[in-house]
Amino acid sequence: MASLYIHSLLKLAFLCSFWPIITPLSLNYPAVFNFGDSNSDTGGLVAGKAFPLTRFCDGRLIIDFLMEAMELPYMNPYLESVGSPSFQTGCNFATGGATVQPANAASTNPFSFNLQLSQFFRFKNRALSLLSKDKELEKYLPAEDYFRKALYMFDIGQNDLDGALYSSASEKQVLDLVSKLMSDLTYGMKRLYDAGARNFWVHNTGPLGCLPRIIATFGKNRSNLDEQGCIVSHNRAATVFNQKLRDICLQFLAQSPEANITYVDIYSIKLNLISNYSLHGFQPPLAACCGYGGPPLNFDTRIPCGVSKDLNGTIAAANPCNNTAEYINWDGNHYTEAANRFVVDQILTGNYSDSPHLVTSPFVN
């Protein structure tokens, strides 16, 4: 037992020594399986709950641009059944509003991380069963070896933090929540690894406190704001979440000899974009493109993007701006296609990705 523990520590130290290396990312995978929330939902919520949006954006999401970089088709959602969708190169289990914590009766979305995992295993078992009977179905379903060679992507946790902070959770309660979220994520990754998954791609969470909806709700007291105009408590919670997320990625590597993990620092990319918006060709970053109310936030909780409503006898409408390519925020909660493109361009440089390579070593078997 002691020798196994020492082996794990040595491997962990070895892997840490490789993480500072920065190289442009090369993405070469036959398939992708994605778990997440609205940041990577490519139609799951519209298929599962008839929600009137296929993407929470004015165009492409981060995951869409990443699929382009891999020269793979855009991902079809697991719940989509209309139009004979192809799942040959993977499947997307993400749905808007999803949480890491299991959903309960009060949840707005039943498709939490544990259910997404169950959907994946159902998908895999069913696909392999069908392929064993008819190889022609490889035109529509992943081949058996694709499941081992595939990239398993994770972008989830923001809604858990958002919900806790909205309910005025104390700092200790948030820390306790983060610990629980890490346990759930580790368990899920372990299940996938035990089933043959080897390549993991993990996004940390963005600067939650810089979303117009959050600022409109918690920013009435200026002492809650940082120099960028973002909510301090929310960004602090996101930072703690991200630190713990990176820790579990390292621990998972130390305990999983064949695993490869790329940890992507979405937080730093987005905060850099918000802090230096004019250098990157954007307008002031804290205003929603599709919203109501005008500067500085152009966001009103009563009127979501695309909705018209009678406010005290006057029809108010939250319509899209004319120059979406100059905006960072789309609807008060999500980023524009232009911002998502910027994020992926930064990801692909390798400057914001920790990706230790498992090489021949006396400590790595």
TrEMBL record:
Keywords: Glycoprotein, Hydrolase, Signal. InterPro entries: GDSL, SGNH_hydro_sf, SGNH_plant_lipase-like. The keyword Transmembrane does not apply. Residues 1-24 form the signal peptide. One of its GO terms (molecular function) is hydrolase activity, acting on ester bonds. Belongs to the 'GDSL' lipolytic enzyme family. This is GDSL esterase/lipase. It comes from Hibiscus trionum (Flower of an hour). The lineage of its organism: Eukaryota, Viridiplantae, Streptophyta, Embryophyta, Tracheophyta.
